[in-house]
Design goal:
The chain contains five helices and five strands; from the N terminus they run H-E-E-H-E-E-H-H-E-H. With 161 residues, the chain is of the alpha+beta class.
Amino acid sequence: MKNKKISVALFGIIVICFFLPFANVSCSGQKVMSLSGIQLVTGVTIEQPNLFSGKSTKQKVDGEPFAMGAFLVAIAGLFLSFLRGKKGLVSSIVLGGVGSILLLLLKMKLAREALASGAGVMQIDYKVGFYFSLFLFLTIIGLNCYFLFTKKRSFNISKIT
């Protein structure tokens, strides 16, 4: 019962982390923008000032598929954590692994795109929302593995006596 509550709480906190700053984009050391996880999921409109004409142009940037996937995994984890027994534990472990991998793939993709589009002068600094989400996904894996294996051992011991 406790493991169910812990997994639900951790997946819920991950969803909340998507509303925190995920990444700062900077160019030549100057912060250009800060992006939350939700902005990475849904997309964002960027206003770029033109230094020569004084006018600014708006550019719509679509959501990142890896961010969308990690967010959906966290939401799915909220519901699948209510499954009883081994199914709930295993589904939480799998979703924690998938969420971790998706966040790491997101980090690699954003770094690659910043390098390609900014000719090396654009940088992405990852913030608390990103790192805390990744940490919580990994924590979910560890805790549910612990619950899975300790539950199995205690079941076998009680069966013997």
